């Protein structure tokens, strides 16, 4: 069994996520939690170092139509700050017809129609700014090393790099 097949099994067997799409409590207020641009979670100025606690918080995180991020339970909703994107893509595995990516909270996702890869260009620097769109309005920033691995897997067509997964094509940008 390939690593990607193993990952597909892990995805299908991932412990159930809380049904936060069903929870709509009134706003409880702001909580002093910041997700920094490098993916670190900070509470009242101190980094949350317990990975399991970060995973728990990430499991109840969503972005709403107002563009704000909230930690949601059935009875409470707390607004937090996010400097860039709340999650990071830290690894990727490829097979001929699909690609899986791993977030910094240990969730695997297979790129495709429901989980697209989007690459924008930073207007100031001209650098690519890749992200993966996830559920609940969340996105994950693709780390530089992972992006270089995706580029290595891409095919070139008319000067543009393309990555394929589950029948979907994702543009990684133009070759210079």
Question: What labels would you give this structure?
Answer:
176 residues; alpha+beta; duf1285 like fold; duf1285 protein fold; DUF1285_N; 15 strands; DUF1285_beta_roll_sf; DUF1285_C; disordered N terminus; single chain; DUF1285 domain-containing protein; 6-stranded mixed β-sheet
Describe the secondary structure blueprint for this structure:
Elements: H1 3-13, E1 29-35, E2 41-43, E3 46-47, H2 51-59, E4 61-63, E5 69-72, E6 77-82, E7 87-95, E8 98-103, E9 108-110, E10 117-121, E11 128-133, E12 139-142, H3 144-153, E13 155-157, E14 160-165, E15 168-174
Parallel strand pairs: 1-6, 7-12
Antiparallel strand pairs: 1-2, 2-3, 4-5, 5-6, 7-8, 8-9, 10-11, 11-12, 13-14, 14-15
How does this structure look, described?
The chain is α+β, with helices and mostly antiparallel strands. It folds into 2 domains: 18-82, duf1285 like fold (Roll); 87-174, duf1285 protein (duf1285 protein fold). It has helices spanning 3-13, 51-59, 144-153; strands at residues 29-35, 41-43, 46-47, 61-63, 69-72, 77-82, 87-95, 98-103, 108-110, 117-121, 128-133, 139-142, 155-157, 160-165, 168-174. The strands form 3 sheets. A 6-stranded mixed beta sheet has the order 3-2-1-6-5-4. A hairpin with a 2-residue loop joins β14 (160-165) and β15. The longest helix is centred in the first third of the chain and has 11 residues, at 3-13. It starts with a helix and ends with a strand. This is DUF1285 domain-containing protein. Residues 18-84, 95-172 form the DUF1285 domain. It holds the Pfam family DUF1285_C.
């Amino acid at each position: 069994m390939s690593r990607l097949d193993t990952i597909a099994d892990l995805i299908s067997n991932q412990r159930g996520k809380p049904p936060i799409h069903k929870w709509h409590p009134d706003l409880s207020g702001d909580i002093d939690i910041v997700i920094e641009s490098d993916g670190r979670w900070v509470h009242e100025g101190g980094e949350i170092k317990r990975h399991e606690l970060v995973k728990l918080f990430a499991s109840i995180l969503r972005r709403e139509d107002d563009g704000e991020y909230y930690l949601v339970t059935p009875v409470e909703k707390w607004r937090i700050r996010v400097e860039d994107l709340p999650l990071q893509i830290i690894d990727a595995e490829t097979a001929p017809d699909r690609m899986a990516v791993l977030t910094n909270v240990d969730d695997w996702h297979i790129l495709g129609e429901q989980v697209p890869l989007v690459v924008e260009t930073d207007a100031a620097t001209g650098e690519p700014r890749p992200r993966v769109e996830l559920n609940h309005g969340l996105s994950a920033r693709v780390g530089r090393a992972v992006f270089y691995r995706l580029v290595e897997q891409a095919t070139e067509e008319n000067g543009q790099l393309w990555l394929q997964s589950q029948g979907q094509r994702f543009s990684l940008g133009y070759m210079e």
